[in-house]
Amino acid sequence: MERLTWDEIAKRFPMQWVGLTDVVYKNNDGITIESAIVKYSDKSKSDLTMMVLNGEGIVPRYTTPNDTWQMGTIGRSIVK
Amino acid sequence: MKTVLKLDEASQRPLIHTNQFPGCMALLDTGATFPMWTDSEEALKALGGKLVKDNVFFSGFGGLVSAKIYELTVQLGDLIYPHMHLLFSQDDAIPGHLLLSATMFCNMYYAIDDKAHTLEIDTRSHQLTYHLKIEDKNGRLHVLCATGE
Is the C or the N end of chain B the one with fewer CB within 10 Å? Predict the structure, then answer.
């Protein structure tokens, strides 16, 4: 498994949740991912969260976050 | 009381960490009235979330939406929201696990510095705990936010 920059991860695994290991943060800020190893790319957000809660040392992150839905819209389950 | 939180520089939208679990991300949505949990119900319960009310309706751009109200203790930096009410609506496309609403910052000064990639919160008081409840009156949801001791 190769180390990729965050841009490479977002390009290779667009619009999905990934589970990362060996994360290097930009300026050690603890939030902005500079590079990492993609351990999981076939899991849902919930899958990854439960894996973290069960002790697996991965960092879940969503790729390509800048071009999804608009300003506070929560409305996928339309009732009427 | 001031607290400064780091924003994810890779995102054009304000994403921060919260303490729910390692890697838990929250999206600040100043257009939102209600805080929201957007991960699974299983994860919410595993973190101590308790169901307050089922089958409530609220409106968004998509129309009328059905959701559940849960309570969960949320911490942002030094600010604590014990047993905070939030809506549960699972959505994988949201780049975070929590949506932070404008109402969480009632009576506070909060500023996004997009150049420095920080979220600064000034409570303008010595309070560290805040109570946020979602009430359903006559089928309409509204938020009550108060400081706590």
Answer: C
- A13 token code pair: 């695994």
Q: Which of residues 21-60 of B touch A (CB under 8 A)?
A: 21-23, 25, 29-32, 36, 38-40, 42-43, 46-47, 57, 60
Q: Which class is B2-148 in CATH? A: mainly beta
Q: Which of B20, B30, B56, B61 to mutate to test the interface with A (most CBs of A within 10 A)?
A: B61
The first and second tokens of residue A77, run together, are 């389950």
Cα–Cα distance for residue pair B81/B131, rounded to 1 Å: 6
What CA–CA distance (Å, rounded) separates A32 from A15? 18
User: What does the block give as tokens for B61?
Assistant: 């751009």
Candidates A50, A59, A76; nearest CB to B22? A59
Cβ–Cβ contact A68 with B under 8 A? yes
- Whole-model pTM: value is 0.87
- Interface membership of B17 toward A (CB under 8 Å): yes
**Tens digit of each residue's pLDDT (9 = 90 or more) over A6-22:** 999 999 999 899 999 99
B94-145: pLDDT as tens digits? 889 999 999 999 999 999 999 999 999 999 998 889 999 998 777 677 787 8
Q: Are B57 and B140 in contact (CB under 8 A)?
A: no
